[in-house]
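Hi F.,

I've been meaning to write this up properly since the lab meeting, where we talked about keeping a consistent format for the predictions we share between groups. The idea is simple: the sequence comes first, exactly as it goes in, then the structure tokens exactly as they come out, then a line or two of notes. No screenshots and no reformatting. I'm using this chain as the first example so we have something concrete to point to.
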Amino acid sequence: MELVPASSGRFEVTLDGELIFSKAALGRHAEPGEVAALVRDRIGPEIARD
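Output, unedited:
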């Protein structure tokens, strides 16, 4: 994961070069858990460890 500073309040999340969330495109902030769910949808659920 990498945090890249930007100007004007941009918040964008990319995964493997694909934009998966953009505050500017949607015109709103992410809901709690929304970005995590988008990442999980692409990489799969957590694996339980014993």
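Notes:
The helical segments are 23-26, 34-43.
Residues 2 and 35 are 14 Å apart (CA to CA).

If this format works for you, I'll send the rest the same way.

G.
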